[in-house]
Amino acid sequence: MTLDAFLILAAALFAVGLYGALTQQSIVMIMMGLELMVNGVLVAGGAFWYFVAPATADGQLVVLVAVTVMALEMAMGFAATTAIFRARDVDVTDDAEDLKG
Amino acid sequence: MGDAAFWILAVGAVVTGIGVFQMDSMARATFLLLASFLCGAGELLLLGLGYLGMVIVLMMTMEMVVMAVFMVMYMMNPAGLMPMTMVHNQRPATVIAVVTFAGLVAGILLTPWPERKGARPMDSTMQVGEAIMGPQMLLMIVIGVAILATMIASVVLATDRGRYDRYGDRLERRRPDDPIPGGRR
């Protein structure tokens, strides 16, 4: 277990999530990609705490914030999906590429 | 032992993460994402972050179950009955993801990371608890306000016709203005 190994794992999770967020058509699947990217941040935050600065809680707090971001992102994402689905019967991004309300 | 567990969990997290976007069933994708999160939480447990690891396990299990419900609501290709492509823009996205990963790895390997400063606490849970209830309390306050704002905003966004639509901007209508009469009057 080294810092490099943990960070490379975090980078891999981030890149996979980025791929998902860019390729998926369904808004719900895009949110899964974003969650996977934040998952990488979780791993990196924990690794920095353990390998660089374990004497203070800063690394743990980054993880705490990232976990909160994940939950809030999902809640807002589903609310936006519900709103656009209700207004225009749209659940894929290709149908929502204009700015018309 | 720690090394073996790290690599098993790391490969598990990445493989299930890739699997999320290979599945043509969104329900299966949800549970693969859960598996990826659980592997990530396992990595945090390996680092001695017992509290945060368990929070992620519990939270993500609940979150993915909720997500599965939404998946069923907004599912493409429900029950495999409507086969269709769920992806677009695949080649540029692959290039962007690979370039990002390569760039990050290069940065990770080339950066001279600092040596560990200070000793690990006996109890990491105690450490984070004392931080958020002491010097870092502002963070906890901001998180609390953000959660409250999200709760309000998501309800506002998801509500179809609220009381202001039914009873007017000043809530002064005696009878609600509904397209179809019904509900409580």
From TrEMBL, chain A:
Reactions catalysed: a quinone + NADH + 5 H(+)(in) = a quinol + NAD(+) + 4 H(+)(out)
Matches recorded under InterPro entries: NADH_UbQ_OxRdtase_chain4L/K (IPR001133), NUOK/Mnh_C1-like (IPR039428)
Keyword Transmembrane helix among record annotations: yes
Localization per record: Cell membrane; Membrane
Key word Ribonucleoprotein present: no
Keyword annotations of the record: Cell membrane, Membrane, NAD, Oxidoreductase, Quinone, Translocase, Transmembrane, Transmembrane helix, Transport
EC number: 7.1.1.-
UniProt enzyme class: translocase
Listed GO biological process terms: ATP synthesis coupled electron transport
Taxonomy, superkingdom: Bacteria
Molecular function, one GO term: NADH dehydrogenase (quinone) (non-electrogenic) activity
UniProt GO cellular component terms: plasma membrane
Membrane topology annotation: Multi-pass membrane protein
Residues that span the membrane, as ranges: 30-52, 61-85
Assembly information from the UniProt record: NDH-1 is composed of 14 different subunits. Subunits NuoA, H, J, K, L, M, N constitute the membrane sector of the complex.
HAMAP family xrefs: NDH1_NuoK (MF_01456)
Annotated NCBIfam families: PRK05715.1-2
Biological role stated in the UniProt entry: NDH-1 shuttles electrons from NADH, via FMN and iron-sulfur (Fe-S) centers, to quinones in the respiratory chain. The immediate electron acceptor for the enzyme in this species is believed to be a menaquinone. Couples the redox reaction to proton translocation (for every two electrons transferred, four hydrogen ions are translocated across the cytoplasmic membrane), and thus conserves the redox energy in a proton gradient.
Sequence similarity: Belongs to the complex I subunit 4L family.
The protein's name in its UniProt record: NADH-quinone oxidoreductase subunit K
Organism of origin: Actinomadura rudentiformis
Record lineage: Bacteria, Bacillati, Actinomycetota, Actinomycetes, Streptosporangiales
Automatic annotation (TrEMBL), chain B:
Annotated EC: 7.1.1.-
Catalysed transformations (reactions): a quinone + NADH + 5 H(+)(in) = a quinol + NAD(+) + 4 H(+)(out)
The entry's keywords: Cell membrane, Membrane, NAD, Quinone, Transmembrane, Transmembrane helix, Ubiquinone
Pfam families per record: Oxidored_q3
Entry function: NDH-1 shuttles electrons from NADH, via FMN and iron-sulfur (Fe-S) centers, to quinones in the respiratory chain. Couples the redox reaction to proton translocation (for every two electrons transferred, four hydrogen ions are translocated across the cytoplasmic membrane), and thus conserves the redox energy in a proton gradient.
Main location: membrane
Annotated GO MF terms: NADH dehydrogenase (ubiquinone) activity; quinone binding
Entry GO terms, CC: plasma membrane
Name under which the protein is recorded: NADH-quinone oxidoreductase subunit J
Membrane topology: Multi-pass membrane protein
Similarity comment: Belongs to the complex I subunit 6 family.
Subcellular location: Cell membrane
Enzyme's top EC category: translocase
TM helices/strands, residue ranges: 6-23, 30-49, 55-74, 95-113, 133-158
